[in-house]
Automatic annotation (TrEMBL):
Keywords, alphabetical: Cell membrane, Membrane, Transmembrane, Transmembrane helix
Cited PANTHER family: ALKALINE PHOSPHATASE LIKE PROTEIN, UNDECAPRENYL PHOSPHATE TRANSPORTER A
Protein name, entry field: VTT domain-containing protein
Keyword Membrane recorded: yes
Record lineage: Bacteria, Pseudomonadati, Pseudomonadota, Betaproteobacteria, Burkholderiales
Organism: Janthinobacterium rivuli
Location of the Rhodanese domain: 217-308
Location, primary (coarse class): membrane
Amino acid sequence: MPNLIYLLEHYGVLIVFGIVLVEQLGLPIPAFPILVVAGALAVDGDMNGGLVLAAALSACLISDFTWFRAGRHFGKRILRLLCRISLSPDYCVSQTEDKFKRWGPKALIVSKFVPGFNTVAAPMSGALGTPPGLFFLYAGLGALLWSGTGIVVGVIFHASVQQVLDLLSTMGSTALLMLATLLGLFLLYKFLERRRFRQALQIERIGIDELLELIEQGEEPLMVDARSATAQALEPAVPGALFFNGKEPVPAMIAMDKDRHIIVYCSCPNDVTAAQVAKLLHQHGFHRAKPLHGGLDAWNAAYRSDEPAPASLLGEGLPS
């Protein structure tokens, strides 16, 4: 452990840069604590506070611009990838996307303080066509605010932080084992959180082949688009689909036949948002509501842009 303190004092700027960079790129490694430690060490002159801030800003902007370019080039596909690999269930919730739609690029100023939102903000900026200059302005302000907050916290509580470092330095290899255990417990917690989130949304799904069979049989299922307004702006909906962005069924659905087939789709991995909406519809008596397995991608794969959608669906949706 004394060697770790030595590394922080002599190579702390590089360590801050590396940890902030990998965390901002998406790895579940908390970087804010290292900023606090760096701020505390800067008080006694063991680290250069200005260089620490510059390193953190550089790491944030490199990561943000990487995700911005990925969002610009790959669009919604990069958002889906982030949702798939993330340990946090927040990324699949449509309200997270709509936060950006509501506030626009200005949301980048506070996005790093919001778990989940931080990961999608930069690629969403690119996917929605935010001008690069405007992106750098707000992303830079957000990185400065987040990094500066961590360093200032360390400066304010430098005495307490120094006591913790002194304690760790007397524990030798036990301290490293303890830190590794805490990191492992953090990752385990995030994994179990995601697993519980998925289990809570277990519901019978309908495959695209079953849906096509229903359509061929003349059942005329109601298609419900459960994507966020942001996702709907990025990709066209199924023709005739009802847009569902609220927490309650729209008034036009209340008078519907409760036995009608309702197919809910979204563009999240694991059909998370669609499963949420389908469960809500079950609570309102629509017991045949099912999420579409594979979501909008499955529909688009069955009906390419050069192939017309089934005539039975066109004009069958209800007003949103």
